[in-house]
Write a structure and sequence with these properties.
Blueprint lengths: L7 H15 L5 E5 L6 H11 L3 E5 L5 H12 L4 E4 L11 H11 L3 E6 L7 H18 L11 E4 H6 L9 H11 L4 E6 L14 H19 L14 H6 L1
Bound molecules: guanosine-5'-triphosphate and magnesium ion.
The site of guanosine-5'-triphosphate has 17 residues, from helix 3.
């Protein structure tokens, strides 16, 4: 979360609603990336009312990769979902994604945006080339690398070391998980572009940082290291809910 005072309370309420419906036990970890608006105070208020909500605050702005790594390190449950704070999808899709994990036995379910027309052609073109570039470099075609819906078993996060500070983090996660032999499936999701607050992560400096980190991390992202056995037979839905 970065300066999301206009979105965060509603995003939290929608997440709590979905988690209550689909999980017996849950936690919500919000990483505040040194926001300068009221959003940390709003999260603190929600956390005082619901002890399952935790907030971790960065003293300095670290961008997406550093922030996700803080959040992943703090997550304690068996299944972890990461989501942007501007509510780009309805958290109720968690039910479908858990179901997809159960039915396919995948270790990671990645969401892709079914329709992006509202975002404008410039961003659609950037994404098209970025998805193509990652596919070409690592041999893993993936439809929507940077979409913020990734549901994964905690084994995935325990097995790989993520090092991006910027927005390369999504590609690093997908590529390293695949290289370790984890099974990934994709599901199409309704995407709701931001209508409140300010966009921060689609600037030229963010894209430049992705390319710089790609050069730095390319060798380790190329290393195939399948130490993971074939995915186990799917667990009953009931177990996932209890997890
Ligand atoms: N950690 C971190 N997160 C940020 C920063 N800027 C934005 N974010 C968060 O990252 C997520 C995505 O940022 P957005 O600005 O929505 O980027 P986007 O989804 O590519 O673009 P729009 O939705 O069109 O604004 C949101 O949860 C933001 O709060 C930042 O500097 N650091
Ligand atoms: Mg957004």
């Amino acid at each position: 979360m970065y300066n999301e005072a206009l979105n965060i309370e509603h995003a939290l309420a929608a997440a709590v609603e979905a988690l209550t419906k689909y999980a017996d036990d849950y936690e919500i970890v919000i990483v505040d990336d040194a926001s300068t608006d009221d959003s940390p105070a709003l999260v603190a208020r929600a956390a005082a009312e619901n002890p399952r909500i935790k907030m971790i605050r960065h003293a300095k702005n670290r961008k997406l990769g550093g922030t996700l790594r803080t959040g992943f390190a703090a997550a304690t449950k068996d299944v972890v979902l990461y989501m942007d704070a501007d509510l780009p999808f309805d958290p109720d899709v968690l039910g479908r994604a858990l179901r997809a994990m159960h039915v396919t036995g995948a270790d990671l379910i990645a969401g892709y945006r079914l329709d992006r027309t509202m975002e404008g052609w410039r961003r659609a073109i950037y994404s098209y080339f970025y998805n193509g570039l990652i596919g070409m470099l690592f041999g893993w075609p993936h439809r929507d690398i940077n979409f913020s819906f990734k549901l994964m078993k905690r084994e995935v996060l325990e097995a790989i070391e993520l090092r991006s500070e910027g927005s390369l983090i999504d590609a690093e996660l997908i590529v390293k998980a695949k290289n370790r032999g984890f099974a990934i499936q994709q599901i199409g999701l309704d995407y709701f572009p931001r209508i409140r607050g300010t966009s921060h992560l689609s600037s030229p400096s963010v894209i430049f940082k992705i390319l710089a980190e790609l050069v730095r991390l390319y060798p380790e992202m190329r290393a195939r290291n399948p130490q993971t056995p074939a995915p186990p037979a799917p667990r009953p839905m009931k177990d996932l809910k209890e997890a």
